[in-house]
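Sequence design from tokenized structure. All designs in this work follow the same two-part layout: the structure record, then the generated sequence. An example of the structure record is given first.
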């Protein structure tokens, strides 16, 4: 790839936000010339439909796209993991409640592309800094069975002072069900018995998110 390519010129002069999804993917895919890389990037976007689906696709699915191969598919997977670790690092160094956008971004990276419902718990210390994120339960396309006792056990194991729980809606509907509301109440009461405060329940649906605390449901 030559350094005088227009996409690279704009990257240096205007920043990465000035590039299209296709151009960003092409730069990440690398060798073989910009024209070939852009063709491959367009093939990926056409195949998976959105940039989010490209980045969240399993390595095996990426490698199956003609012309991509295992090395380039690994680059895409690594790029997403670097972003996830950067957000984790930020959450460990800062008050999570003071930077809710970072938490939501982290949850979107972890849950947005999952095809089944997944329930996770984010455990925090007494200064609301991240201790650990645990994926506790997996379910079907429409529901997950969550056992409050298991959430309490894992919170105690982490010596948590507070918790944020989250789950995804693969349907894409960012609205809590009655079961979601009941579960949140149960978790709040059960965790309170061991002096762990439930700060929020976040629902992830594609690129959307909903905070039970902000909605007044907690």
């Amino acid at each position: 790839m030559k350094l005088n390519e227009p996409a690279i010129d704009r990257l240096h002069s205007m920043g990465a936000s000035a590039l299209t999804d296709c151009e960003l993917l092409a730069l990440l895919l690398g060798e073989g010339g910009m024209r070939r890389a852009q063709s491959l990037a367009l093939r990926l976007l056409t195949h998976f439909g959105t940039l989010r689906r490209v980045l969240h696709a399993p390595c095996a699915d990426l490698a199956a796209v003609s012309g991509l191969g295992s090395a380039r598919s690994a680059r895409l997977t690594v790029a997403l993991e670097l972003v996830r670790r950067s957000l984790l690092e930020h959450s460990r160094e800062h008050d999570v409640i003071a930077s809710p956008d970072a938490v939501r971004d982290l949850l979107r990276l972890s849950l947005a592309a999952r095809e089944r419902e997944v329930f996770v718990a984010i455990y925090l210390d007494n200064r609301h800094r991240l201790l650990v994120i645990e994926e506790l339960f997996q379910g079907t396309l429409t529901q997950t069975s969550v056992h409050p006792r298991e959430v309490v056990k894992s919170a105690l194991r982490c010596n948590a002072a507070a918790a944020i729980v989250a789950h995804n809606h693969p349907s894409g509907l960012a609205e809590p069900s009655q079961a979601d509301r009941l579960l949140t109440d149960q978790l709040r009461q059960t965790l309170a018995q061991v002096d762990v405060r439930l700060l929020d329940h976040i629902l992830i649906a594609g690129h959307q998110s909903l905070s039970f605390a902000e909605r007044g449901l907690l």
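The first helix runs from residue 6 to 14. We note this feature because it recurs in several other targets discussed in the main text.
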